[in-house]
Amino acid sequence: MGHGGKRPRRKRSEFVSQPNELSAVLADLRTAKGLSLREVEEATGKAVSNAYLSQLENGRIQKPSPNVLHSLAGVYAVPYETLMEKAGYLLPSEERGGRRRRLAAFAIDDLSAEEEEELLKYLAFLRSRSPS
Amino acid sequence: MGHGGKRPRRKRSEFVSQPNELSAVLADLRTAKGLSLREVEEATGKAVSNAYLSQLENGRIQKPSPNVLHSLAGVYAVPYETLMEKAGYLLPSEERGGRRRRLAAFAIDDLSAEEEEELLKYLAFLRSRSPS
DNA sequence: GCATAATGCTTGATCTATCAAGCAATTTGG
DNA sequence: CCAAATTGCTTGATAGATCAAGCATTATGC
Questions:
Q1: Minimum Cα–Cα distance from B81: chain A residue
Q2: What is the pLDDT of residues B61-72, one digit of tens each?
Q3: Distance of CA A78 to the CA centre of its chain
Q4: What percent of chain B has pLDDT over 90?
Q5: Which of B2, B37, B72, B74 has a C-alpha 20 to 30 A away from that of B44?
Q6: Is the pLDDT reported for residue B28 higher than 80?
Q7: Interface pTM, i.e. ipTM
Q8: Per-state percent for chain A, helix, strand, coil, to nearest 5
Q9: Strand D: which bases are under 7 Å from protein Cβ?
């Protein structure tokens, strides 16, 4: 031991995160619902740890298991197949003959009436910025 | 899900061959086509080893990856989804669309991907000002 | 201000999926 | 009959998924 002062140095690991589409979707869904990592962990019934969620959202996991995706689909109230598709396990739904809702549509299902009204105004604003 | 951590120590499981529906289906498909394990390995372009196929058909693998199932679906000319279903990754009768949609949901179906992302961030903002 | 909780994150450890190599039986062909 | 090939199978090694703990920083309460 020796050298008095410093404790085990903590090296700053250079995370080579490769953000993919899935990680972005999962992060967006969680923040859109206003949930913390631990709240999601809890919502899955401890099936998915907050540690893992963090790695997932930061693109450090290449292939989360279908079980994990199933748990998260439940928490975020989005279709399991959609997450499977984002993870590259299934062909895009168009090529499988299926209609689909925008992911954002699922994020608003439990808004209050007041919030929904605000949201509609915001949508009008969004549209005013792009040609129809 | 994983197992990690140092929790109650788990004993090494003795290879209890537990043939499930998937293993039976895979074995039947292969013998029905008169193929050997190595021929199937070859047919997948070396994507799945004969060693693994053996374990798979004898129920020694709990959750083969979707990638493996995809390769085998190609070789045996059966639908990928069918094998996924046998493996327990998909529900047999997936019913979709039962939920009631918010009004606003109809207004976002034709947003661009960028706009949708903005929208999700806006939702996070909305939530941050009201309790759940 | 300070203790405490909450948040996102990193890391060490463990289990599982998966393959390369090898093995004992069986088949084939000369 | 025997060597070579084939077949199904087992096992050691490796990589990746996943979690329990713990850390740094920020928010919250007194």
A1: A90
A2: 999 999 999 999
A3: 11
A4: 46
A5: B2
A6: yes
A7: 0.74
A8: 55, 0, 45
A9: 6-11, 16-24
